[in-house]
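Here is one chain, start to finish.
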Amino acid sequence: FKLPSDSFKYLGWCDIEEHGVRGNQLHCPRVREGPSEEELFFRKEEHVLKKRKQVTDTEKWEKRLQENWENCAELNLSFQDLGDLYQVENFKRILRRLIRVEKLWLVDNSLTDLSAIRLPRCRELNANQNHFTSFKQLPKIPQIQHLSLAENNITTLSGISDLRHTPLESLILKRNPCEFQERYRQLVFSNLPNLKILDGIPKLPEDCSPPDVRFFYRICTIL
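Its structure:
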């Protein structure tokens, strides 16, 4: 059976009349846009069209200006179900406006490349369960302190040195292919000298052992 809210599933919260919800009460807003009229007709859901408020391009632009993403300091945009290209582009449009965000969650959004995005004040970013394959695909995060990239598809540590000049203290790369690279922890810490915690484990003495010393120990013969 359809849920009572089924006829409103493609509406933004501010388009629904007679409610007392305010924007600052939405801790995990759904920013994925609803499908086009053509797509609704294809899905045989044209009955919801009469529930959607028809707006002109000018009204749509004015509404976007009122979204006020620029003043967000903490935001959860996880689980947005970005299946179509226009959904991804709308999502990136919002990310470009997050010039003051300090804590951001982007979990499970099938993201592949945010290299064109800059988050100048972001100190904490959780991008777990996406489709990143390289550190080069991450957004520009010059002030990052805590970065979580668990369950992506990052195969090598190439590009990790781009984070070298950031105040990064903790990094999570669990369940990425690069985790199985030989001398994984030593390589990460050698590229990120300011890093204190990797995958939840604090930096250990053996994590900063020079590779030539470790090699000497392996070939040493006791007489």
